Amino acid sequence: MNTTAREKQLGLWLTKVLGVGHNVRPLAGDASFRRYFRVWAPNAPGPKVVMDAPPQLEPLGPFLQIADRLRHAGVRVPDVEAVDRDAGFLLLSDLGDRLLLGLLHEGNADALYHRAIDQLIAMQQQVDASGLPDYDGRRLRDELMLFPQWFLERHLRRPTSTTEASDLEQAFECLEQAALEQPVSFVHRDYHSRNLLDVNGVIGVLDFQDAVQGPVTYDLVSLLRDVYIEWPLETVERWVDYYHERAVAQGLLDSDDRREFGRWFDLMGIQRHLKIAGIFSRLYYRDGKSGYLSDLPLTLRYLRAIVPRFPELAALERLLNEISDAGSDAALVRGGETPPHVPPDVSAP
Prior knowledge:
By secondary structure, the chain is of the alpha+beta class. It has two domains: 87 residues, Phosphorylase Kinase, domain 1; 235 residues, Aminoglycoside phosphotransferase (APH), C-terminal lobe (Aminoglycoside 3'-phosphotransferase, Chain: A, domain 2, Alpha-Beta Complex). 48% of the residues lie in helices and 12% in strands. The chain contains 13 helices and nine strands. The strands form three sheets. A five-stranded antiparallel β-sheet has the order 1-2-3-5-4, covered by helices on one side. Strand 7 and strand 8 form a beta hairpin. The longest helix is centred in the C-terminal third of the chain and has 28 residues. The radius of gyration is 21 Å and the shape is globular.
């Protein structure tokens, strides 16, 4: 179905749900195939949000299931007001536009991050993660392979040699082991400044449909080493301390070994940022979304800052240094080729 026909179908559904005379405006999208709109209806007290999720690409089941779990745990998420599963349409309550990314500045960062961390610990303790997919070795490895496949080979046009492939294999095994030895909890998977809002003093949570059960540090890394905003390393360490002290006090962590927790946090961050470099590249070449390339330099800066802490990742450090020496951030953002202007191949890895 082409875009015009899809929008007509959405308009007919909204007329059925809200009545005639509604007004629809597009909202910023995300890295998926979903689209979002804000809609005003004549007799409604305020705006609503519409999610358009083509069912063959983005089935609504996971979103609805995770939303229900979060809501039952007391987490502020959009309420579902109408749904058409077959068409892939959702009408949601509107949590507003006060994303943390737009609110953060030097003077208020501690207070906002403390609130976001408190919300994270509450989610990890209270959200029922039973039956959610496991963030297991296979899933971790599939994500890590995005780095050589999409970032190195496609974006940088840099085929990996046999030696480099072996070096990456050893690095990936180290990262997987560190992830799998951690305590398991509910994992949002995209818990960062673009998916958290201030809703009348409460942290609202968006984009949770890919939740799994997995390493306890994953969401903390997403929040504190966010690829959309950068903070000094010592500031991040202070926030990690804040999380660790409260997680230990509330029984979320079995051990109060701060050094071990810091090692988990750092290695989980390396796994996540390798994956993100691959995903941002894939979004450009497969899906024609160029906006994420501008976030690659920060993603690589995190890797270059943290990888040297681990002697066992020396080969990965050499590879990252070679990438850094080969070109500027501008070249990194520009990429190696123009993506084809064709519909995305959703069967691609």
